[in-house]
Amino acid sequence: MILKRVEALCKKKGVSISRLEKDCNIGNATVKKWDESAPRVDTLKKVADYFGVSIEYFLE
Question: What are the Cα distances from residue 59, in Å, to 23, 28, 48, 55?
């Protein structure tokens, strides 16, 4: 679910997941792994801040 929300926000903002990872200083292919495992809170916070949403947005 988290990955789907991130993908939707990327599409809305017109950025790729790899661009998001670079801009947030997240390891390559980290976000794609969120489909199978939960992200670290600090990493999710970086993504939330990047898109201007709360962490809770990804968890709803």
Answer: 22, 22, 11, 7
CATH architecture designation of domain 2-59: Orthogonal Bundle (1.10)
Q: Where are the domains of the chain?
A: 2-59
Report pTM.
Answer: 0.91
Taking 90 as the threshold, does the pLDDT of residue 59 lie above it? no
